[in-house]
TrEMBL record:
SUPFAM superfamilies attached to this UniProt entry: FAD-binding/transporter-associated domain-like, FAD-linked oxidases, C-terminal domain
Cofactor(s) for this UniProt protein: FAD
InterPro entries associated with the record: Cytok_DH_C_sf, Cytokinin_DH_FAD/cytokin-bd, FAD-bd_PCMH, FAD-bd_PCMH-like_sf, FAD-bd_PCMH_sub1, FAD-bd_PCMH_sub2, FAD-linked_Oxase-like_C, FAD-linked_Oxidoreductases_BP
Species annotation: Actinomadura craniellae
Protein keywords: FAD, Flavoprotein, Oxidoreductase
Similarity annotation: Belongs to the oxygen-dependent FAD-linked oxidoreductase family.
Record keyword Hydrolase present: no
Name under which the protein is recorded: Oxidoreductase
GO molecular function, one term: cytokinin dehydrogenase activity
């Protein structure tokens, strides 16, 4: 990429900047020439090389990174993806897959080819305990279809926002934002089988027993070793209603006592917390949810007895609960141009033994600007025994049965580009990550905007690095796949 660029420390002037190029790690002030796709193979789907199509996929939800591809593949089959990966391999053109592009630091961008995987969105089968789906389908569409079945079914783990693709969240992990987490593990823990197009253009099937090295390298594997084209996802019986108990806390110790009580309370199916910059009325809002079928509602007293504060209770149909964040995001889309707001997100795993001390350290330092009117900071508990996959990476075992994901999902007040805000928040994220890694055993959840070098990635994978490197060499020997995060950059 040869557009005019300035070094990462230098902030380009607001009028000139196009965005940050995560691959070259510098600010971009004009577009670069694209690679040629003139000899691309015949396809079932479409290869778009017009400027509007390329520009439409040049950034992600973060609006921080900008990298315009040379072409956009709208596939109609895994064969299309395989043919284009072979073409790109032969011409040394980088390839990235794009689900809904809801990462925030250019993880799915590329100057070469972008595969728009959302065009592959069919449900191939939906049985009593599993569905085989194209990886471009959204969790919302899969959930609706599973719930319409008799008896009603649901994926056992659902992200808070369900307009994300199956392939996208399986590539990062998939934390149960509103369903799952206490006794389920992540979405990657509920996959029976995958179809993957590797970096050599081979179409492979894999599972825990069949090509387990590929299975392990693509689940939570950030698109480094293959493109997930189909997944067989476990389904479980769904309940009709969700009753949520919400508790406001200002005191760190009392909040954690209630948090730790609720995650072990019989009858509680899901727990998470929202964190606010400190003020007199609330610092934390704790949510515990019980799913049930009428006429057998949860026992409110058994669930909330002995807690430090009185809960408010909301009782809704299951799907209203599951799609509540989607509804909130849709409103932001309509009212404040949500998709164009700048989102320098900070997302980390913390060991159960240090989260409390870490929050005691950082909460007093947070200001309203660190989250923003349209942002959120969230804490999700995960019982470690259900986290079965080697990727995504977790904190080192510390004797606690729990690990937590902390999100500080900062959102700007107005649409970008906002180079000074971005520079300030990326520096904040870098500083906070160094501190949480060194002093609290924190580990990156790689959906957000924490600047990472090749050295950071090697440390991130730790003892898993040799196996991940071997899978990369085997399944993507020309290193064409997913350059955005820079996992296998030299250096
Ligand atoms: C409002 C909101 C709420 C969220 N809530 C949660 C939550 O509750 N839990 C949680 O875990 N996360 C949550 N996320 C984060 C989310 O999981 C990630 O942003 C995820 O990447 C989104 O999926 P996507 O379809 O947009 O993937 P993309 O952002 O398009 O892709 C993610 C990465 O995987 C690669 N990739 C995409 N598809 C494939 C594929 N088929 N094969 C191989 N590689 C692929 C991409 O190149 C990219 O590097 C939330 C995000 C938002 C915006």
């Amino acid at each position: 990429m040869t557009g005019h660029r300035e070094s990462p420390g230098e902030v380009a002037s607001a009028t000139a900047v196009v965005g940050f190029d995560p691959i070259e790690r510098s600010w971009v002030t004009e577009a670069a020439p694209a690679p040629s796709f003139a000899d691309a193979p015949a396809l079932d789907g479409e290869l778009a090389v017009d400027e509007a199509s390329r520009e439409a996929v040049a950034t992600d939800l973060g609006n921080i990174a900008h990298h315009r591809p040379g072409a956009v593949l709208r596939p109609r089959s895994a064969r299309d993806i395989a043919a284009m990966i072979r073409f790109c391999g032969a011409h040394r053109i980088a390839v990235s897959t794009r689900g809904q592009a809801h990462t925030t630091h250019g993880q799915g961008l590329s100057g070469g080819l972008v595969i728009e995987n959302r065009h592959l969105d069919r449900i191939h089968s939906l049985g009593p305990d599993a569905a085989e789906v194209d990886a471009g389908i959204s969790w919302m569409d899969l959930t609706r279809a599973a719930y319409e079945r008799s008896p009603r079914l649901t994926p056992p783990v659902l992200t808070g926002y369900t307009g994300l693709t199956v392939g996208g969240t399986l590539s990062v992990g998939g934390i149960g934002g509103l369903v799952g987490g206490l006794d389920t593990g992540l979405q990657v823990d509920h996959v029976r089988e995958l179809e993957v197009v590797t970096g050599t253009g081979a179409i492979e099937r894999c599972s825990r027993d069949d090509k387990p090295d590929l299975f392990e390298a693509v689940l939570g594997g950030l698109g480094q070793c293959g493109v997930i084209t189909r997944a067989t996802i476990e389904l479980v019986p769904a309940r009709q209603r969700a009753r949520t108990y919400a508790l406001l806390h200002t005191d760190n110790a009392a909040f954690f006592r209630d948090f730790r009580t609720l995650v072990d309370r019989p009858g509680v199916d899901h727990v998470y917390a929202e964190l606010f910059p400190p003020d007199a009325t609330q610092t934390y809002k704790l949510y515990a949810t019980a799913f049930y079928d009428p006429p057998a509602p949860p026992d409110d007293l058994a669930i909330t007895g002995g807690l430090a504060v009185e809960p408010t209770i909301e009782d809704t149909p299951y799907l209203d609960y599951v799609f509540s964040i989607d509804e909130g995001i849709d409103t932001l889309r309509e009212t404040v141009n949500w998709d164009r707001l700048v989102k320098p997100w900070f997302d980390v795993w913390l060991p159960g033994s240090t989260i409390e001390d870490y929050l005691a350290e950082i909460v007093p330092t947070l200001t309203p600007r660190d989250i923003g009117s349209y942002g959120a900071s969230l804490i999700y508990p995960q019982r470690r025994e259900h986290l079965t996959r080697p990727c995504p990476r977790l904190p080192e075992p510390d004797g606690s049965p729990w690990a937590f994901v902390l999100d500080i999902n900062t959102v700007s007040e107005t649409p970008g580009p906002a180079p000074e805000f971005v520079a300030e928040m990326l520096a904040r994220n870098e500083r906070m990550f160094a501190r949480v890694r060194e002093s609290y055993g924190g580990v990156l959840y790689p959906i957000g905007s924490v600047p990472f070098t090749a050295r950071d990635w090697r440390a991130h994978y730790g003892d898993r690095w040799p196996a991940f490197r071997a899978a990369k060499d085997r399944y993507d020997p020309d290193a064409v796949l997913t350059p955005g995060p820079g996992v296998f950059d030299p250096g």
